[in-house]
Amino acid sequence: MTSAGPVDDDGDTGDSGDTGEADDPLVGVIIEIPQPYAIELTAWRAEFGDPLARSVPPHITLLPPTRLARDGFDPLVAHLRTVAAAREPFEVLLRGTATFRPVSPVVFVQLAHGISECEMLQAAVRSGPVSRDLDFPYHPHVTVAHDVAASALDRAETALRDWEGRFTVGGFSLHEHGADGVWRLHERFAFRTG
Fold this sequence. Notes:
Layout: E1 26-32, H1 37-47, E2 59-67, H2 73-85, E3 90-99, E4 106-113, H3 115-125, E5 141-146, H4 150-159, E6 164-169, E7 171-177, E8 183-190
């Protein structure tokens, strides 16, 4: 992989699910963090010197970067539509910081509410045509500093200790990693309503 994307900046090496060819699409599935929280967390990430601050939008990973066979897009999209149609919107409360150190040089904003919903959702997303193992146990979070100096990680952990954001998750999105190293939105999948 030439650069990290919206789903591999948190200590998951991403390509562990790679069983395809190098020119097969690399995809990931995320819950996008809405505004105004996204712009604020991006600014903080840049403040901590994280080089991915402007190229990786704040998100909660559901499927880390996974190599997909060329003919796998249609089955994956159909699967994700089915997963989304079976879910209802849920609330997420982001509050405070934690770290994966010393295992991985990551500081993140924690989920105080919505953890079990994210766990069930990611398990459903990773089933079917994208079944794969993870490098680490699933832990929903929003990365705010990764692969920066220890002092910057310390600052991130302290600066956002009391940070909080609440929003309703109404769906998730599929992204594809381009040959230019940029992650692009492929499709959004809305949960059922009513």
